[in-house]
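Practice record 12: protein with 5-O-phosphono-beta-D-ribofuranosylamine.
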Amino acid sequence: MSDPGARSLPEVARVGVLASGGGTNLAALIEATTAQGSPARIVVVGADRPRAGALQRARAAQIPTFVVLKRDHPDRRGFDRALVEQLRAHHVEWVCLAGFMKRIGPPMLDAFPSRILNIHPALLPAFPGLDGQGQAHRHGVRIAGCTVHLVDAGTDTGPIVAQGAVPVLQGDTEHNLQQRILRMEHTIYPAALRWAVEGRLTVEDRRVHIDLPEGEAPWWFDPTP
Ligand code: GRF
């Protein structure tokens, strides 16, 4: 039994976010963590692409940023070590992957054991890997959604923290579905991060127990007709 969230309150947890793309999840996390009384603060945003929109969002919010390029490192270990170095320089305690398109390897997992969260745009364990929304749409599922999980050495295989379900409507395009899922991502990720930094998560085998605040639940259903 491990206790990935053990920490003494009421300090504010220092969170680093890694992203590769536009950063709408980052924006949702910034909004949640800058609200009065938030138990988390985003202290740095890193990207593997200098042009990632997420970096601009971070700068606009006056959050320090860094870029680590894969091509500057001979192998994956070196790339991972560079990420660890940057995150440690900002005294990061928790890491959120928010559309980060690189696999996380042993140096990161060892530096932040059970303290890396990821958002995946499908109801895991269905449709792991790239383009979860497209995979679900092409498969013809009736219910799609998203998952926040703790990161382990596999691809989208880590213990599940929270899930949000959305319907697939008649005539939906991949784009429509992706947007509906994305809105759900913006709801579940901030909640999962809050529970994590508040020390509410306990992992036993691969099941996550959450000491939930009253009235909260680790699942969501989009009521779109
Ligand atoms: C999201 O769909 C997320 O689930 C996936 O990558 C996308 C990132 O979107 N991992 P954004 O950059 O947060 O807008």
